[in-house]
Design brief:
mainly beta, Immunoglobulin-like, 5 domains, 7-stranded antiparallel β-sheet, 45 strands, elongated
Length: about 750
């Protein structure tokens, strides 16, 4: 007859109890349907409080009198327990497994791996909560949290294994000896002591120390473990959202179930002070201030030779009062003694301490355990200075810059929180802060410095309120300091206090490593249109300066033709001076007349006026003008200023461009590296320095020579230029010819034409 669902029965195993021999195969007892506690017993109050794992083995069986084909069956958990602390999970096992076999299968989330790089050191007895490993010097120790497996009689019928988790690790390098050639030889090995989470459930034989670090083949093997996660478990969880017939996915509240109880919980700890055994209170108002003491430490091992009640020790460096902690172990429990800051001890012991010498005498109520350690921990007061209640010291200072500057004087308000109260400091309009703190303000840069009388709370911030104002910039040309190095400036308007920022350039001497000295300047000679739209050149000699102005100039390389040049003179003393314009290729000064070929059409100017009597040295200023005519080429000359004895007191360079007609034949009005030509985009010639021209007279300063460089086209770089390399000297013939062969920057000899030819 057909097998019905009611013919499939669930049979109990031989032993339905949480004992090692539980399970063991099927029995003839049928577990009735819908019968409470037919598989598991009720949950006791002890199990509910501490947790428990109940394991039952059950079997399915078809009970019919015929031999009809069995087409299969399945088992499901159709309803989960109402108690959230109770869970049921199904797993497949061998038909004749015992409870111990099933528990081992659950524990085999970790499986044994390769042998550890050390072995069990000497014999270990049942009930031990630690194991010792013997390892080669320098090999890594087991990390905390690692699970090891101890295997006794591996591969035999009496094999026994236990998984142990490491909770603490301590290592010590020891010296061992062995007999060699009628004497003894030493070697060093590492003995690692590992605290384990569970006690040893059986005795495990270990191996003795061996200089080859090889264990006895018949003794306990220590193996590492790896995560297998190969078991499959089945359970049931409620849906977190309703599912409809035909859905291929469903949402559940979770995928995890409880297999075994855990007596451990994870607790996060923040704002801890590592290694700080004690906290010293420096102040309690307006808020609590505590200083963690990071201790020095000293460990004394307790052995048969020194075990006792009283202990004496000298601590170096000297301990600070209130920082000493002494820890010792009695019958497996730790006890502490700490100093009271006045030379005595409190806690689980009595004694005295001398903070001046660091000597300690302490007595414990019980003798420390043999094999344990007495730990001394203390701090020194060099890590901090307690200034609470003290006077005569500078308060800490805070500095910062505001986002917008300059600041309008009298508009700054700084607030902060100290001890839960709001503190305020304001500026007085003259650059000083007052109120609940003192400080200063640089209105020009927005820099604020504050020394609060009430310290900022931990994690607090300074809040700055202010009004910023537009910045006024004024430039001064030809400012010369007096003999003492001071320069006087007159501003166009009255500045706000502490709002002035001055920038200037300097000249210094630098000595090279070879011993020679060269002048290095950080100042720049203004060439072209300056910030005021007029300055073309500024230069001169010590004691006198010449500044060229051209109100009509828009050039950046020299004065255009027909420009009116104003030459301003500043000297350190008043007097009557004369001036000349000299070609760089003519006979040195003085000359009877200005050379005709220097600057074509250049006219002479007025002689520098005699300075009025009584003008202070360094303030004497005179002016003369020069009208320039068109030149046939770029010319460079010198303006030479002399005193009444014809002695030269100032020399400045003067450069004049050729006429626009001459310039138009050489370069376009707006030179550029690339321009749009009628037949496409191309490049145009560009002007580069080409060296200097010297006459036969070696005393004459050379004239600068500009050359035109034709563009080159490179497939990779496009249009580029190849100007001359280094400084070349042009002779008379080359100047007349207007061209010279020179080495280019690419290392190719190239004929360059002088600009204007």
């Amino acid at each position: 007859m057909t097998i019905q669902s009611g013919d499939i029965k669930i049979l109990a195993s031989k032993v339905m109890d949480d004992v090692p021999e539980g399970g063991g195969g099927p029995s003839g007892t049928v577990i009735p349907d819908n019968n409470s506690n037919a598989v598991f017993t009720d949950v006791s109050e002890v199990d509910r409080a501490g947790g428990a794992a109940s394991i039952r083995q059950v079997h399915t069986h078809v009970q019919t009198a015929d031999v009809d084909r069995f087409l299969g069956a399945h088992i499901i958990v159709s309803r989960i327990p109402n108690d959230d602390n109770v869970a049921i999970t199904l797993a497949e096992c061998n038909p004749f497994d015992r409870r111990t076999d099933i528990a081992t299968a659950i524990e085999n989330y970790l499986i044994q791996g390769p042998e550890w790089n050390g072995y069990l050191f000497e014999n270990h007895v049942q009930g031990q909560r630690s194991i010792q490993l013997f390892q080669r010097l320098g090999t890594p120790t087991p990390p905390i949290g690692r699970t090891l497996v101890l295997i006794k009689n591996e591969g035999l019928g009496t094999e026994y294994k236990q998984y142990v988790r490491v909770t603490a690790v301590e290592s010590e390098d020891r010296t061992f000896s062995y007999s060699s050639s009628g004497g003894y030889a030493d070697y060093v090995g590492t003995v690692v002591t590992c605290d384990i989470s569970d006690e040893l459930r059986e005795a495990f034989p270990g191996s003795t120390a061996d200089r080859a670090f090889v264990r006895n083949a018949s003794e306990t093997i220590v193996r590492d473990t790896t995560v297998a996660d190969a078991a499959t478990y089945y359970g049931a969880v409620p849906l977190s959202a309703a599912a409809d017939l035909g859905d291929i996915s469903a949402k559940v509240v979770g995928i995890y179930s409880q297999l075994v109880p855990s007596a451990r919980t994870e607790t996060t700890a923040i704002d801890q002070k590592p290694a700080a055994q004690r906290l010293l209170t420096l102040a309690s108002t307006p808020r609590l201030i505590e200083v963690p003491i990071v201790p020095h430490s000293l460990r004394i091992r307790v052995g048969q030779e020194n075990r006792g009640f009283s202990w004496v020790q000298m601590l170096k460096p000297l301990p600070a009062p209130g920082t000493v902690v002494i820890s010792f172990m009695v019958l497996g429990n730790w006890y502490t003694v700490q100093d009271d800051g006045a030379g005595g001890f409190t806690g689980s012991g009595t004694g005295v301490i001398n903070y001046t010498t660091g000597s300690i005498a302490v007595t414990f109520p019980s003798m420390p355990d043999a094999g344990s350690s007495v730990l001394f921990q203390w701090g020194e007061n060099t890590a901090f200075t307690n200034r609470s209640g003290a006077a005569g010291y500078r308060m800490p200072e805070f500095s910062w810059e505001v986002a917008q500057a300059p600041i309008k004087p009298g508009t700054i308000t700084v607030t902060w929180q100290s001890g839960g109260a709001t503190r305020t400091a304001t500026d007085d309009g003259t650059g000083d802060l007052s109120g609940d703190g003192t400080g200063s303000v640089n209105y020009a840069t927005g820099q604020i410095s504050l020394r609060p009388a009430y310290m900022l709370d931990a994690g607090g911030e300074f809040s700055t309120q202010y009004t910023y104002t537009p910045q006024v910039t004024e430039r001064f040309a030809s400012v010369s300091p007096d003999a003492g190095g001071f320069a006087t400036l007159t501003l166009g308007e009255v500045p706000a206090p502490r709002s002035i920022s001055v920038q200037w350039t300097t000249v210094r001497n630098c000595t090279t490593s070879a011993g020679s000295t060269e002048a290095v300047t950080q100042s720049t000679t203004t060439s072209g249109v300056g910030p005021d739209g007029k300055v073309i050149y500024r230069g001169g000699s010590p004691g006198c300066s010449l500044t060229f102005y051209s109100p009509t100039s828009a050039s950046t390389s020299g004065f255009p033709p027909s420009a009116t040049v104003e030459v301003h003179v500043q000297t350190t003393s008043a007097g009557t001076f004369d001036w000349r314009i000299q070609d760089v290729n003519t006979t040195p000064w003085p000359t009877a007349a200005m050379p005709a070929d220097l600057i074509t059409g250049a006219s002479s100017g007025t002689v520098v006026t005699t300075y009025p009597p009584g003008i202070v040295a360094g303030k004497a200023i005179g002016t003369f003008t020069v009208a320039l005519a068109a030149a046939t080429a770029m010319h460079e000359g010198q303006v030479v200023l002399t005193d009444f004895t014809t002695a030269t007191i100032a020399v400045a360079s003067l450069r004049v461009e050729p006429s626009s007609t001459v310039r138009a034949t050489v370069t376009p009005p707006t030179p550029a590296d690339a321009v749009r030509l009628p037949d496409g985009v191309g490049a145009v010639p560009k002007i580069f320095p080409g060296g200097v021209y010297n006459s036969d007279d070696l005393t004459v300063v050379g004239r600068k020579v500009d050359v035109g460089v034709q563009p080159l086209y490179d497939a990779t770089y496009g249009y580029s230029y190849d100007p001359p390399m280094g400084a070349a000297t042009w002779n008379d013939a080359e100047m007349v010819a207007g061209q010279k062969a020179m080495l280019s920057q690419r290392g190719v000899t190239t004929t360059y034409k002088r600009w204007g030819f």
